[in-house]
User: Fold this.
Amino acid sequence: MKTYLVTGAAGFIGANYLKYMLTKYNDVRIIVLDALTYAGNLGTIAPDIDDERCFFVKGDICDRDLADRLFGEYKFDYVVNFAAESHVDRSIENPQLFLMTNILGTQNLLDAARRAWVTGRDEQGYPVWRKGVRFHQVSTDEVYGSLGADGFFTEETPLCPHSPYSASKTSADMFVMAYCDTYKMPVTITRCSNNYGPYHFPEKLIPLIIKNILEGKKLPVYGDGSNVRDWLYVEDHCKAIDLVVRNGAEGEVYNVGGHNEKTNLEIVKLTIATVHRLMTEKPEYREVLKRKDKDADGNISIGWINDELITFVKDRLGHDQRYAIDPTKITEALGWYPETRFETGIVKTIEWYLTHQDWVQEVISGDYQGYYERMYGKR
Ligand code: NAD
Ligand code: TYD
Assistant:
């Protein structure tokens, strides 16, 4: 039985990973550490916490005493560090919070792991590590900066972050590698492209667009909508992390991407068209619309769900033009590939939101409304 410390599992990707792991393996014990910021929702993972295989601890990854206590109590084999401030726009508003969580928090966990996992010294003075332990850092393709019209990010692409968010994630990656180089700490890093799927907080593009359609609001596209992202279904990302934690080579970085480049405008138009199609095929979905004008047949009208909802707003400062990942290394080394085609993943995602409006209401009831007004009121 392996014992995992999974940080940030009340957030989007961490929660999907937790559910994936608990479904796939019987012989794992997972301790979730999450500060429950605006992006963390305990309700998302409440059904998974059973105090036998899955335990929840509310706390900050920057808290040294707490980290030491948890490492002492649970004897972790693996750390999987998802916890982060993850939204680029918020990092432009308040960069320092990103340094605190993403850099200092990661370094605090690295140190706690070092205190707990080192069993001695070799003749050259390097720490000797408990057998089978691993610190896995969940990183992002944004550490590589921005691409022009051609080319892909490989693991050899120089790190060149632009936003405060990506600068903080890059710094965290460099600390992880520094612990590997200096102390021979067993680490791995995955750098993933944009995820989409269930439990995605509705400040990120796809869930925001779905939410705004359902509320009958305008759909804000930054700049001219030509920026490109490489979208990956979240469960495929979770599978990649699981493979790398268990079978990845120590000290290695693996890029994880969907082979699925789309401009933001394409994503928004596709989301509009898919919501419209699903509501045509299953008229009962229309009940979740806030706007309830009736058509000539007395059904809730959906004629207004079209591209006219799109509004082009002021561009993000320093907006990276294009991200695209070459995942050859993880495919060749570990047999991973993006299994979910975008056409399938986007339908699953939209249907999930149409049938989980209670979850959306729960997560937006906190700080999010004030943030939304600040962010889009001024654009
Ligand atoms: P998220 O914002 O949805 O969730 C982050 C979680 O971390 C939340 O549950 C939050 O409560 C928790 N958290 C924040 N600060 C904390 C702290 N100081 N201590 C403990 N917990 C804290 O993020 P996400 O989209 O699920 O991303 C997870 C990880 O994956 C992040 O490290 C992110 O950089 C990385 N990543 C995300 C994407 C993406 O498309 N979303 C792509 C590549 C990489
Ligand atoms: P986002 O989901 O914030 O992810 P990231 O910035 O990490 O890639 O944004 C994805 C793309 O969508 C990005 O190019 C910015 C753009 N975008 C909009 O056009 N409108 C929006 O309201 C948001 C949130 C993002």
The mean pLDDT is 96.
